[in-house]
Amino acid sequence: MMKNTALISPQLREGGAVRSPYHRLIAKLSGLHVRTGVMTLFSVLLLHLWIVDASSQTAIDTERSVLTVRVYKAGMLSGFGHEHTIRAPMQNGTFNEEGRTVTFVVDARALRVLDSDISDKDRAEIQTTMVGPKVLDTEQFHEIRFRSTEVNRSSNNKWTVLGNLTLHGQTRPIKVEVERQEGSFRGSAQLRQSEFGINPVKVAGGIIKVKDEVRVEFEVVGR
User: Fold this and answer.
1) Same domain, yes or no, for 7 and 99?
2) Which end of the chain is more exposed for a tag (fewer CB within 10 A), N or C?
3) How many domains does the chain have?
């Protein structure tokens, strides 16, 4: 009888009450269920918020949304040079007017020189130089990306958009002035090629060259 009592007696006391190993196991399982329930509820709420946020995004119409770059001539004999218009469709992206966000991606390899005042041969040479290793190096840097960080409305149909532009493998902050026109959002920004590690093209020892500063234009249309 003494042996049986000794085997049973080492029981945990909590609050003056003796708790058996069975009761302790139940308590642990109950706590586990509570924690699991809280985590499950938290996960469901996060999923719900993600779904709501995703549903409020408007996809960009990639057939009508474009990026345009305007390059200007400079140098002593700039009169013999050419100003260039370069364009590519947006590959994908979204915007949220209420949430004031916009992001898009352009395939740099899709950029095309559109100059109409030069010969086909000259246009082809400019195209090769532009996408080649001396300028954009599109084989190494495939994408041009923009992601807004702040959007401020200046009037009913105008906004100032601050964001990060990734070009030539380098990311820099830019400011874009945006205006809504006939169902599309049109914006423009001035930037320097050298800030993105690009050396402006020079020919004839620099007598004919393009300006470091270029104008980048965005036209975003929702689906």
Assistant:
1) no
2) N
3) 2
Give all strands (DSSP E) within 1-119, no chain letters. Answer: 12-14, 17-19, 58-59, 66-74, 84-96, 101-107, 112-113
SS3 174: strand
pLDDT in tens, 179-188: 999 889 999 9
| CATH number (domain holding residue 158) | 2.40.128.110
Task: List the single range of 4-18, 24-38, 191-205 with lowest mean pLDDT.
Answer: 4-18
Long-range Cβ contact pairs of 74-80 (< 8 A, separation 24 or more): 74/200, 74/209, 74/210, 74/211, 75/202, 75/206, 75/207, 75/208, 75/209, 76/207, 76/208, 77/204, 77/207, 77/208, 78/208, 78/209, 80/208
Question: Nearest Cα to 134, choosing from 200, 203, 71, 214?
Answer: 200
Which among 38, 55, 72 is the end of a domain? 55
Are 72 and 137 within one domain? yes
For the stretch 1-19, pLDDT in tens is 444 444 444 454 444 555 5
> What is the C-alpha separation between 74 and 215, in angstroms, rounded?
14
